[in-house]
Amino acid sequence: MPTGVERLLTIAIIFAVATSALYFFDRLKLRKTISKRNYWIKQVAYGLIFGALAVCGTEFGVPISGAVMNIRDAAPLSAALFFGPYAGIIAGLIGGIERWFAVYWGAGAYTRLACTLGTIFAGVFGAFVKKFILENRKPGFIYGGMIGVVTEVVHMLLVYYTNGDDPVQAHAVTTLCSPVMIPLVGLAVALPGFIITLVFKENLHPRNEEKRITQHIEAGLFIAVILAFITTNVMQYFIQDTIAIKAARDSINTTLEDVRGDIKASGIDANDNEAFEEFIADDIYSWHIGATGYLVVLNKDGYAVAYTKDALLEEERDCSDVIDSLLEQGAGECRKRTYDDISYYSGFFTYNDYIIVAMYPCNEADFSKDLTTLLTALLEVVILAVVFMMIYILIRIVIVNNLDKVNEDLAKISSGNLNTVVKVRTSSEFASLSDDINETVDTLKDYIDMAAAKVEEELAVAKNIQRSALPTMYPEDNRYELYANMLAAKEVGGDFYDFYELDDDRVVFLIADVSGKGIPAAMFMMTAKSVIKGFVQQGASPGVAFTKANERLCQDNAAEMFVTAWMGIMDVNTGHVVYTNAGHNPPVIKQKDGTIEFLKCRPGFVLAGMDGIHYKDFEFDLAEGQSLTLYTDGVTEATDAHNQLFGDDRLLEAVRESGNLNMRYTCKLIKQRVDEFVGEAPQFDDITMLGIKRKTDEDRLGYIALDATPESADEVRDFFDAFCEHYDVPFKASTKIMVMVDEIYSNIINYSGATHSVITAEYGDGKVIMSYQDNGIAYDPLAKEDPDITLSAEERKIGGLGIFMVKKMAEDVKYTRVNGTNILDVVLEI
Questions:
Q1: Is-contact 312 336, C-beta < 8 A?
Q2: pLDDT by residue (tens digit) across 280-310?
Q3: CB atoms within 10 A of CB 30
Q4: Are residues 50 and 147 in the same domain?
Q5: Alpha-carbon distance 788 to 797, whole Å?
Q6: Nearest-CA neighbor of 164 among 375, 313, 310, 390?
Q7: Of 149, 184, 204, the domain-final residue
Q8: Where is 154: in which H helix or E strand?
Q9: What's the domain count of the chain?
Q10: What is the pTM of this model?
Q11: Does 279 share its domain with 191?
């Protein structure tokens, strides 16, 4: 390897190491200190650094065989590829401008324009590749090398283009520089990519990681381009070589024929050697081949008797070996031979004892071939690089980008957003793919809707089964009132309550919560409810019933569920309550004077949690006017949007706020306060409440239960007359009450189909609160459109006027249906 090439190789390696070191510094330091707002500061900084390296490439070029070679173009290329497109453009401009003016202090003027344009092109081309081909990735060893090769090939082509008036000199410079500068620039760009890949593991893909389509395309296109380049250039070389040999042979044969014709025309006697040599010596200077070819006349002894000026085979040289070689060749043939390290095409013919030899230097004869072959090779590199980039960009735009859009939509669909519509319609294939995906999603949505409907149907059945296991007919007793309700969450839950009379003087009430959700919890709930009720009806106290139920529930409890429960048995005459607690929330006891507190009692362990647990009986007395409110943790653990719990304090406040209202209103108010607290947050747990209260005389005054018959209408009127008289309700208000009673109760007995009804009335805080309950068909009178009272009686539709009057007179009217019972609540302000 020539010393100059070794020096240039060393410079290329040093340049690559410096680029890698700068990249490490950028990766480890600058990225921590320079914000995105200062992106341009970094681009300018690296543009200046690599611009300075490009200047050094010009100033420290290596002289080789009369030319000054360098790897200047590697600087702007590396700046763009490793540090950003704008850094490359800045470095290219700096290096190119400096090369233009460098002729004033000794740089070569012949390639001035080509080198200037080549350096600027390196920065722009590197920026383009970084942005649109690599998509801001770092190039690896192979791609870095190929980008460097393509850039320097363009530089060599610029030498031809800018010196078109002197192709011989341009070809000489290019032939000398190309084998050195092209591979070394490629190496200077490839090495940093190799080093960075090893250190930071960038652009490496594990074997088990799937490659992107573009990566497969890159590899395939690269192989195709290399094969195309090799194939076309090998064919081009052999074709051009054949053409060059034929042209050389034709030139030699034509010249020899001209010589033979001149000899014949001279009229020299063929046997007169002296005359022949004299003729040849005078005439040979008029014979030539091309610009530098010549002829030599050899005698039988192997010496030249005549020759063109500066001919290789001079007179004093013994050329017998040449004669032997020519005779082996045969007259009329054209062969390539080397004399004194210079290659020639040669041909000859014999004349008596002389051999007339034509010598055509290969460097002239093959110039057209060499020029065409090298120029074609350089052009093919550029053409194939352009084809590579265009195909790559086209495939990315037409296929890969659209596939990415499809995948983005599919990711949304996979995450559960089935309303996503794929709208990639840039081609018929993608339009068809989009339609197929959308149709598949629509079909999937239909299946999901069907499955959801089936699940909803099954859940509805399960809920109905669960509700059917809960008592719905509340006791009608003047000594106490009891109300219970369960508001299930979306899923079937495990909350339940129970109440029943053991005899005329004792009532059992229970509330419980099964762990878990869904149908298994509901089934376990029904089992627990039945088991507990069975032991109580056999005469067991609450503690004994829980003890035996726990033993039974622990058997075959494969699901490992458990139950929290609170149960009491009250003597309705005395208010004496015997109760037990299996890990449940303490109930709220409200005194007649409005004092609120939790019932203090140490809870036992949960049911079905552990075998061998014994539960104790506890006692307390519930006086007239006192009430007990039981609830599940769905009340106190109701959560709002900020993840805050409803809690015990809000529960106590809601019970206190209910005043002396009956237990249905107390439970209803608690639920209302829970809903207000939770807001838009979903209900995650069942909300179950049970309230029991010993009645006072005033409570008995505001309660009536009767069969829903036309004859019972008078009893209802008498009930409200007594109520208004007891509370001294003003005449105007009592008149409104009686109008409401007539309208509402007449609907119950005439249209509802009910067989039984319960009416309650309460007075307090300047308001009368009435509740009408019946077991008739489900019917919401408030849903009926209000009549147009501006029309005459003949023009108005029949019906709806009575309930319209009720709504106008009342402060508030609400309808609900609970456990098969129609409930219409009316609030009248006195």
A1: no
A2: 777 777 777 877 788 888 887 777 777 775 5
A3: 16
A4: yes
A5: 9
A6: 375
A7: 204
A8: helix 141-162
A9: 4
A10: 0.55
A11: no
